[in-house]
Design a protein that fits this description.
- With 181 residues, the protein is an all-alpha fold.
- It has one domain (2-157): de novo design (two linked rop proteins) (Up-down Bundle), CATH 1.20.1440.
- The protein has four helices and no strands.
- α1 runs parallel beside α2 (84-104) and α1 (2-64) packs antiparallel against α3 (112-147).
- The longest helix has 63 residues, at 2-64.
Amino acid sequence: MEILYAVLFIVIIGGAIAILYIYQFNKLQHSKTKIDQAEYLLDESLRNKYDLLVEAEDYVKKSLKIEKGFFKGIDKIKKDNISNFDLDRKLQEYNNTLDQLRADYPTLEDSKDFRKLLSVIKKTEEKLQAAKSFYNKYTSELNDLIRVFPSNIVAKMHGISIKPFFDGKNMQDEIFDDFKL
């Protein structure tokens, strides 16, 4: 009879451990899935922003009848193998150039097509900011799960490691000087 109780006890403990393992694994997978969704949204928004900025450059050249390349290197970005974070930084530089052109050439604002293009760029930028926030939220959630017991054990078993935030900063390293703009 004691053997039966011992076996029953082992089965109950094993079942509890299995349930805990499944629960922790599912939490990790949920966060990973949300991060994948956010990465898709980031990719899509960055692609759209790139296309819109190329369109804006073409419009500025035609409107001002200037062959000067205001967005130097924008056509080479797709060929470069850069991270989404670096792409976002470069596109923001081109966006700043576009804002400067608007200030320098007020006649650009007279065009309904140009104003519509600027509106679409603004909406795309808002989507991009939302996607960054979404990504960082679930990255933070995943990293928290990886650091705490018992989900850290499940994460190690499945090779799930800490992910960097969208801004590319590694909060685990010894570099304190990586908060540059």
